[in-house]
Amino acid sequence: MINILAVVIGGGLGSLARYATSNFMAARYGADFPLGTLAVNIAGCFIIGLFMTLSTERLLINPVWRLVVAVGFLGGLTTFSSFSYETIRLLQHDTARALLNMGLNVVAGLFSTWLGITVARVF
User: Tens of pLDDT along 84-111?
Assistant: First the structure.
């Protein structure tokens, strides 16, 4: 039960941070380009790289904190950070699988978004 609560709390905070960042960026710089999404994706990638490296290689922390930060907060903030971290880890061991992961996520993600838009417009 503690693991679920950790993810819920972290996810709520991450989602709130994403919402606030997107609103701030749109108000400050306009909404013509998704700067808020770009900002949270870049920040999330930095945070997951820093946090996961520190928590798995340098520091002894309770695994629940990994759930709060990496799964919950960063999952609510952006899933791009998970994609980025996992791809970097693949690049360290298997370049072909890393490239496949990148290609599939980008192409399939864009296609799925287009398909969802298309289906929504039909109904």
Answer: 999 999 999 999 999 999 999 899 989 9
Total-model pTM = 0.79
Q: Tell me the torsion sign for CA atoms 96, 46, 77, 32.
A: negative
Rounded Cα–Cα distance for residues 44 and 85 (Å): 10
Joined tokens for residue 20:
């606030």
